[in-house]
Every structure is written in structure tokens, then in C-alpha cells.
Amino acid sequence: MVTKRKRPGRPPRGSPGGKTSAFSTRITPELRKRLEQGRDASGHSLSDEIERRLWRTFEIDDGTAQLRADLDAERRQLHAEFDGERAKFEGAFGTGLNYSALRVIAEMMKNLETATGKSWADDPWCFDQLVLGIQRLMREWRPSGTAEKPVPMLPWRKLPDEFGEWLAEHQLAVLDLTSEHETGAHYSSVRIKQDLGALGTRRTFSDEHRIPDVAIPDDGHEADPFFEEHRIPPVAIPED
């Protein structure tokens, strides 16, 4: 009896040694038509075309997973850099909230200058638009509820009704009294005044609308009557 030898066939692409596993499934006629079109375009068998396309989906999944991992790593790096930057400046800004809020305002300044090509500090129209933007921002951020004057912290005895005005005047006084020869704790004021440039000495608000000028208390300058009026006198600490 003569046994017929099987003709060796071409092993399917992607199957080392020609070893394959049979797999059957039902597909829609539309999908089969697309697969046959892909087979005709590539010159592969229908089985090869199906296998190649299945492998491609896994490659896409692997690439997507790697991309997500890279994005997560980049996001963690950015978060670490931002947290480090925030921690570095928190002492100057008081809290992370203050720092982040001022970052938002700084972005508004930058966007305004990018859109107009002018500095808000030099152009009246840009300055007015920035004020409008900050006012809108603060209105959106306003806490809910009725405004009630809080109990003052030491050394304040009471808070004036226009405390915001006083705060602004106080900062202007700090700039006015800051000398370029300051050292130690006051050196940051020197750098701020230098960075402000002309703004450090600019006073365009009418004098008739300003509250009395204030000085910085307890730092060697003449005492500020306004401050002295509203703060509690220092309490002597008895020696043990």
C-alpha cells in the first residue's frame, strides 16, 4: 500500500514552526467583507490577515498603556515640581492658597500682555482691563453668607471698617520706606521694590481719597497713630 506524502504548506505568518491553534468565531458579513478586502490588498491569506489584525490590536493596547504610564510619570513629576515650588514660596505668600490664587492672577496678567503686546503696568487700557478681570475673579470666589467683621487677632484691638484700604496703604508705606541698603529680614522688600520698578513709587490715586499715610510699627520707624489706635498695647511677660 502506497502512502501519500503530505505536501508541506507555508506556515502561517506569526506562527513559529507552523504550529497553530484552531479558533473559530462568528462575524458579521460586513466585517468579513472588510477582512477580505484587507486580504486582497496585502496579498496574505484570510487567516493571516485576521491574525495580523488581531496582533495589531494588542500592539495598540500595549502602546496605549505605555503612553498612559509615561503621562502618569510626567504628571507626577510636574506635581512634585509644583509642590516644591509652592513649598519654597509658601513662607512669603502665607499659605498655598494665597500662592495659587496669585498664580491665577499672574496668568491673567500674562495672557493680557500676550494678547495686546503691552504691559498692564504701562498701558492705561490694559491696566483697567486687568482690574476688571481681578474684580470678576474675586466676585466669583467670594464666600457665601453675610459679611461680618471677625474678632481681631493680636495685636489688633479692633479692625477698622476700611481695613482693606489700610492694608494697601501699609504696603505702599513699606515700599516708600524701603531703602536699597536694607539687609536681613527686610531684604525681600528691597528685591520686590526693585522688581516693581516705576510701580514701586507710582502714586496716581488722588490724595483726597487716601487715608492718612502709615508707617511700619515696631521696626525703628516712627509709630503709626492709625495702627496704635487699633491695636492692643503690648503685654509685659513677667519673669519667672
Mean pLDDT: 78
Secondary structure tally: strands: 0
Radius of gyration: 36 Å
- How many separate helices? 7
Largest sheet: none
* Cα end-to-end separation: 121 Å
Percentage beta strand = under 5%
Order of helices and strands: HHHHHHH
Gross geometry: elongated
**Contiguous runs where pLDDT drops below 50 for at least 5 residues:** 213-223, 231-238
Class by alpha and beta content: mainly alpha
Instruction: Please estimate the helix content.
Output: 55-70%
Number of domains: 3
In short:
This protein is mainly alpha-helical and 240 residues long. It is built from seven helices and no strands.
Throw out a few tags for this protein.
240 residues; mainly alpha; elongated
Write structural notes for this entry.
The protein has 240 residues and is an all-alpha fold. The protein has three domains: 67 residues, no CATH class; 48 residues; 81 residues, no CATH class. It contains seven helices and no strands. The protein is elongated and about 85 Å long. The C terminus is likely disordered.
How is the topology of this model organized?
Elements: H1 29-42, H2 46-93, H3 96-116, H4 124-141, H5 163-177, H6 187-196, H7 225-230
Helix pairs in contact: 1-2, 2-3, 3-4
